[in-house]
Amino acid sequence: MAEPITSPVCGYDALTVVSPMCFGNEEKNQDRARWFGPGNTGALGDGLTTSSGSSDAAGLVTDCSSVLFKEPIDDRLRVIADLLMARRMEALRSEVKLPEPVSPAMQEMLRQVTKAKLARSFQTTLVAVCLTPTDEMTVADVVCCGDSAFFAFSTDSGLLASSLSPDYGPEHDDLQASRTAGVNQSFRRICFQPGHELLVKIICDGANHPALMRKIGVKKGCESRWLFCRPLDLGRSPGACSPSTGNDRRAISLTLRDRLLVPKYLTGQLNAPPYRRYCRVPFSRMIRVMSPRAGKANAVTFDDRSSVTAALPDDFYTGNWTHYRDRFPRDAHFVLASDGFYRSFASPQALWSWLLEHRQALGRPAEQGALLANLHASLHTRSGDDDISFVWMFPRSFAAGENVHGENEKGAERAC
Amino acid sequence: MPHEKKISRAEPGLIIMQLDDSLSMGDHLPGTTDPKYRWVERYDGIILKELLSRSTDVEGETVVVKPRYYVHTILYGSHPQVWGDQLDIQATVEKYTQAGNSIGLSAALGGTDAKAAFQMSLDVLAKAVASDRFKNSFPPMLFHLTDGESQTDARPIVEQIRQLATTDGQVLVVNAYIGTQTSLNYQGPEDFPGYLAPTEAGPREDNIRLFEMSSEVPESIRQNLIADGIFPNLRPGARLFFDVRTKEMLKHVIAVVGSVGSRVNR
Which pTM was predicted? Predict the structure, then answer.
């Protein structure tokens, strides 16, 4: 991992907001969020309501985020999961007071229920990111367990990536097609996944072909940031997958007939040409595949109506968590969001527009409170109010001259 | 979007259990040596315990039961009778445990007049959806379980029930039919796809009638049923009509009751 640049222009700052539920007569306040500036690390935990001690669990995982990204990450996360389990074991041993008056049979039922509940205590989601800005890009290490979300945005083009994106993995029918394509190499499937490099041929520089760039969906003014490329091969990186075995959910499935839009910063060709005709690019979800299949890749929706989510510590031990690394433009913004926050909006774009529109007001406590009160009211009329929390990480160059700094007191203020 | 509200103390869920207690419920459930009503009580107890769990919080060292669910239980045969009148979940479980883990089923209510039972449910639901307690909640679920063809046609009344609504959508009607046969080929809950068309529920006329009386599964409930492993292959748009061929299927069908809303605020 490249060393971070210490220039204040290239570093990150953050706005952290935690707003407990305020409608309905349930007590919540189970979200916790934290920004650790020296490590460019943000974390957010959403304690499960059905799990006692979950607010403490959310606090523990976010407090530990400052040391989570020291390699190896899975060992660090294991320690966090073990700490949660230890708290759970303590809770299981504690004496509890049952409500009164209840019959002996009911008391026995409640004891069984309570024991089962304590056996699932201290559960929380976790989403955390460690940002490493370099000269040309920002590398983001992301850890996710559960339905709290990670988003990357650009002020120019909106959503860049999200942990809520649907899987990119090769479709079964595509796999079948690749097997039956036989020796037709143009249909050979390349499974491009984190940790790999892709050998590409550069067809043209977007700076020289702005009309083509706009035709294929690049926003006006951003044409020079892209290279139009053709994939050739994965090269000889160790661990490269064959077309029939690629199963990383973040993998990008390519054929040699695809065309790619590759951000220049991935190729080391951020500046103007002359450039090489061939280069190797590291894996990044910022690479856009120009094919009909790619349409679904950006279809992030907030319409998952299930109430079930993965959570620490249990889902650490079952492997139901992810850690991945991606590379983003150096002026990218990153948002960690509880489901209470992102479900206040119809889409990621609406969420991003709201943040940009209210970026100054969010830095002022009274106005922030009013904005959050509106979100709570909106949630309450739809699916029911919830805790709302987010961490918005932005380049210091964005904050220069604008008052977006601010951090409300965790759990202490209610928006309404 | 309808059917999105979470269950909470402020907006609790209402479940109406309308259970056949006719003579034939005393017959053994196929593949077992116990009468059907015993299995219904057993599995009902499991779901009541689950609802109690979702309503129980441990706050420090104190266990608190919050009224997040209300249950209204109607037993019927040749006539309907109320076993539990919109009791909150603690009172429901208290009554159940004090009765020796029973909801009063005994296969002693004679024939099968479903129309009268649905009329009673309609009266309860019409008041409930207009009440302060439930008007903004996830819509109530009417869970009807029978093992035989009704001697009366309840379709017009059920149609009225399905038109009732809270601010979050229309009342949901579930029909479970013990011991019937349909055209659908499946092994058990693990591959049960749900019924999309009357032809799949047929050819028996009483199956088709119950199918048509059943609500379409809302997406929120379908996702809960899949995520909980109750019916992991349930198709979108399936009706909340279930044929019960085994005790395993009975257990999973009764568990549908627990899929209302998003349970407690997650």
Answer: 0.78
